[in-house]
């Protein structure tokens, strides 16, 4: 089989196409023939490591957390999955040397979720990191739901920062499916059109509008939850628009590694800041996300493609380096690797 590997950290040039024998699934594992793999910021950040020329966690790494494909072999002690099942993967490379940038991958069965026949492999490969992160961000409020389903967020107002990104797109679609009123902030009309296509009820261009005033006009009592990609840049805005007992769910550090908050105003609001990292959310949150995301997929609530607000950028397996570079450069939309 063909696989992409790297044995030292650095820029995309460290990625190499090689031939390998497919692995055999052990107890509790399945082997999946990859059709399409997804590329996320976590992939290039892991590839760069602490600096160029450093050794990664394993002698040789196949990158990639997300993908969709077909179960090819099943190990012992696996139930609920069989050869030929269409599936999507999450956390495929977490604490493992082999991920999804290869023709076959072996993963623990709990990281494999069945994909309905009507859902494309492109959609399946776009779930994983974006959709599960979005799910966790939408379920962190103490007075909100721990699960998502139609009606779960009725009466809630959700602000999605950066609604044109992959996580933002998933957050918009999941929040709308769950009944929330969704506001999103964008940097221009093109991204605004994408957020609208994803289903956002209100789009605020923070470059041309007074974002705080506009959001307060839409939600006079404030927003209940902020899905935040840039906490440093948006700290002042969030403080201005958050409702009492509102939550800021932070899943990225775009625009700065630190941020400052005014203690007294946030104390008055009983503001809660909840950080979200997929790798450490715990098994309960992961299982809930897998089930709810699968239900949203089955309901047609999660979509991909430019008409759905998430343009797709496809690369071949041999061009994985270019795919990584595209994500690192901040391309708008979802980067996919066509493997099978």
UniProtKB/TrEMBL annotation:
<feature type="domain" description="Enoyl reductase (ER)">
    <location>
        <begin position="10"/>
        <end position="337"/>
    </location>
</feature>
<dbReference type="InterPro" id="IPR036291">
    <property type="entry name" value="NAD(P)-bd_dom_sf"/>
</dbReference>
<dbReference type="InterPro" id="IPR013154">
    <property type="entry name" value="ADH-like_N"/>
</dbReference>
<dbReference type="InterPro" id="IPR051603">
    <property type="entry name" value="Zinc-ADH_QOR/CCCR"/>
</dbReference>
<protein>
    <submittedName>
        <fullName>NADPH:quinone reductase</fullName>
    </submittedName>
</protein>
<dbReference type="InterPro" id="IPR011032">
    <property type="entry name" value="GroES-like_sf"/>
</dbReference>
<keyword id="KW-0521">NADP</keyword>
<dbReference type="GO" id="GO:0016491">
    <property type="term" value="F:oxidoreductase activity"/>
</dbReference>
<dbReference type="InterPro" id="IPR020843">
    <property type="entry name" value="ER"/>
</dbReference>
<dbReference type="Pfam" id="PF00107">
    <property type="entry name" value="ADH_zinc_N"/>
</dbReference>
<dbReference type="Pfam" id="PF08240">
    <property type="entry name" value="ADH_N"/>
</dbReference>
<dbReference type="InterPro" id="IPR013149">
    <property type="entry name" value="ADH-like_C"/>
</dbReference>
